[in-house]
Amino acid sequence: MKETATELLNSDSVQLYNDFPVGVVIFNSEGKILFCNSNCRSLLGECEGRRIDEMAGGVPEFQVTPIADLPKVITAKCRNKGGTSLYLNCNLTQLQNGNFLMVMPDADEQSEKITAIAAQKSAAENLLKSAVIGTGSLEDALHEICRIASHALAVTRVNIWEFAPEYVSITSLLNYDKRAENLLPNATLYRYQLPKYFNLLETEEIIPTKDALNDVNTAELRDSYLAVNGICSLIDVPVRISGKMVGLICFEDTESAREWSASEQKFGLFVAQVVALTIESIRRKHAQTELEKTLDEKKLLLSEVHRRVRSNFALIQDLIKQDVLLAKDEYHKELFNELRNRISSLDMIQRQLYQSGSVGKVNFRDLILDLVSGYRSMQAGAPVNIITTLDHCELSVGKASLAGLLLNEIMMFLLNKTRVRSKENISVRMKIVNTRIELSIHAPIETNQSELETRIPTSFQMAEKLESTLHTQLNSGFTASVSFEI
User: Fold this and answer.
1) Is the domain of 37 the same as that of 123?
2) Does residue 89 contact residue 77 with C-beta atoms inside 8 Å?
């Protein structure tokens, strides 16, 4: 039997469905559309008598059969009044007479929501790609964030605030109003004036307010801030860095009271995260720049100190050299030369310390090689072959100084011995055993313990300061050895 809208519904029902602010479609079990109201016709055009699953070109596309588990939500592809295609979630249920009723949301309203979400998505991408936010100053970066966010949420004002220590107040870092050519003056709000509002900020992730002038959450702000600035509706989002609340971003609408959608609130949370990352990144870069500046100043200072220390060592050695020339006997000349060599050893330690780039460590292997190089140049007229077998090792400045003085005195003693024959070998060995250094010096000379105590007393003292003992052996020449902790 042929069914029409008039037969299907009485006049009152037809009028009722036509007055609905949403689309209404009734179709039978065969998928034939029996009725659609005026809102539906604005979406689909005239569609009575057509099959719902045959509708194409931007109208609902789904298979009618089998239809089970009703009521349920289905997705239909439609077009809005402007001709834009979009997908709508429609409610589908079955009537008592066996026909099916589909209710379609307002397409224009859905289109506006989709457009708003698209704008927010685009704004999010712009925020993440912005060169100003990534490389500009903090004020320029925050200005860019506020400008983009204001456009995406269609709000008049966006401002960013920073908390004082102990949360006693908040001071605006930047006040943006799209109606003004320049940024607005910064302001400060105090906790003692707004205790409930400050407590709310500490406990809530986001504070959306439809009617800011009459909402209990923002009542404390009414006279001092909201009414003065003409704010009708707002979203406040605390800004947190590493879990600590450091600031606040406010999105303020001056047009009318406004219900904030879920997507708008999510976008507000996203912008707050961008603000947190921006503040943290720019301040870290600023701190890094200041640190690099300080390090450069320290490097310059260390270079100047190094130059002056070495200059003083050279001056002292020259003065001692003059004393050597004035000495009237060999004994005093030898004493002055030993003193000069000790200062030369300290000078080498200073050079190694500067070249190592470390404040407290010296490459002890390189220090020994420097000392040996100096000994070789001193023996140019009667060369003595000095053989080194050295493991790599870094020592603290203190231990390197003590061990260097110990080695220097023993080497000067050996080189000054008249019984050291030309082209004989003096061997210097350094071996690392676990956490200890084993240092030994051997030369084919003849000596005795009494002479050693007289000629190298400093070496025995340096060994004690290294918390060790200098051992000497006089069989098959002379061997001195010492072992100490690295």
Assistant:
1) no
2) no
Of 287, 306, 334, the one marking the end of a domain is: 287
**390, 443: one domain:** yes
Cis preceding-peptide flag for 457 (omega within 30 of 0): no
End-to-end CA distance of the chain: 105
Nearest to 363 by CA among 333, 400, 331: 400
Length of the chain: 486
Within a domain: 91: yes
Residue 192 is encoded by which pair of tokens? Answer: 């003692």
Last residue of a domain, which of 52, 80, 105?
Answer: 105
**Six-digit token string for 252:** 């303020």
User: Residue 286 corresponds to which tokens in the numbers above?
Assistant: 């600023």
- Nearest alpha carbon to residue 279 among 243, 238, 241, 236: 241
Q: For 37-82, how does the pLDDT look when each residue is reduced to its tens digit (9 = 90+)?
A: 887 776 666 777 777 766 533 344 444 444 566 777 777 666 655 5
Nearest-angstrom CA–CA distance, 143 and 305: 46
Q: What is the pTM of this model?
A: 0.55
Assigned domain for 333 exists = no
Number of structural domains in the chain: 3
